[in-house]
Amino acid sequence: MSINIDALFPKLINLLLDTVFVVDKLGNVVFVSDACQQLLGYSAAELTGTLVLDYIHPDDREGTVAAAGKVMRGQPHTDFRNRYIHKDGRVVHILWSARWSGEDQLRIAVARDVTALYQAEQTRNALYRISEAAHAAETLRALCDGVREVISELFPNSSLYLAFNDAEENTLSVPDWSVDQGKGWAESPMEPGTAIAEVIGTGRVLVASGDPARPGMGRINPSESAAADWLGVPLISRDAVLGALVIESPTPGTRYGVADQELLQFMATQLAIMFERKRADERLRFLAHHDPLTGLTNRSLFYDRLETALRSASRNEGRLALLYLDLNDFKKINDTEGHEAGDKMLIEMARRLEDCTRDTDTVARIGGDEFTVLLSDVHGRASVEAAVGKIREFMSLPMKIGGKTFHASCSIGTALYPEDGATARELLSKADANMYLGKRR
């Protein structure tokens, strides 16, 4: 039985899982196998007669033209990769094997879809790099910076937003990347009806539309035909939603697909675990150096800062002051109103001390109702007395606790370096003695 190879050949070509392209020297598609429908979403009839460059990702066109030129000069290509745009808008990664037929003046190529392989490589590499960032980062904010760098490479044409949810305050805490790396945070209210509020509220992945007026917030799509240029996935750890990871495209026509959702969701799952660990580490470090009730610097850290400030003042011939404070009649209030009221008063006093001192000063709770304040870079007793007067004014303001109004006062002792002592012990002893002298008066 004879076989008509010429008649069978097109059928064999169309049975191949890879797509066969035949392109002329001007870049026009003269033949494409039926597998193109699966590869790019276009039928063979739609592609035939069109320019192959029209389907290539804009960022890959220059490299593709250069590679095609080499093939046409007789240099076969067996491992060239580039990206094409599918009919539905998603990106397809293709591995090519191409040769030039000089006799026919045609470029014959076989295209294999390696998108899944590429995404697996991306995910593995990104996960490894984020794990490295988690180990190297000393703070949660530093980890966010590392995550931003990795995910920006996964989605190079998208803006990234990381938001942590404070359910009690109904606010979002986000890294402020407009300031120095590793430092800034910004707070914004959780706006009901936004896409990010929906993601955090439901704990589900959401594809929505970007809102130019509120970058990163997104607006929930009213219909299937609406844009899909906003993608948000929840950060979930131990069944709790910590926040959301969002990508948003500024490029018109972008539509995030299933593959994008799966990749971002996988990254968010890993990130949530790392974020939770990093936040727990930060909390432990904070508690080691801060008073658990008021959040102020504790005795140990205060002494370290005082010693450091003294060394700096000694080298630079500077001056500093130490204040020792004690709340008057606190025991009486604590005994009559209860420990809860007493704790609230201590917390309020701590906030007032922070409000009436500079960022460069250090406020600490030494224990009980005793506080200390380290004033750096003072210019003499007059400036110290001015600071003391401001503290007394803030402390004397009425406060409401448990429906009752209280008028608190405090005794304050001061000590200046170098007049009242050259060491931390001498300054503390002098300030403490002056405080009790004032209390007796």
What does this 3D model show about the protein?
Residues 318-441 form the GGDEF domain. It comes from Marinobacter subterrani. Residues 5-75 form the PAS domain. InterPro entries: Biofilm_reg_signaling, GAF, GAF-like_dom_sf, GGDEF_dom, Nucleotide_cyclase, PAS, PAS-like_dom_sf, PAS_fold_3. Helices cover 42% and strands 25% of the residues. It is built from 13 helices and 17 strands. The protein has helices spanning 5-15, 36-40, 44-47, 61-72, 115-136, 140-154, 195-202, 258-289, 299-316, 330-337, 339-355, 381-396, 424-440; strands spanning 19-24, 29-32, 77-85, 91-101, 106-113, 159-166, 171-175, 185-189, 206-208, 230-237, 240-248, 320-327, 362-367, 370-376, 399-401, 404-406, 410-417.
Fill in the keyword field for this structure:
441 residues; alpha+beta; Beta-Lactamase; six-stranded antiparallel β-sheet; 13 helices; elongated
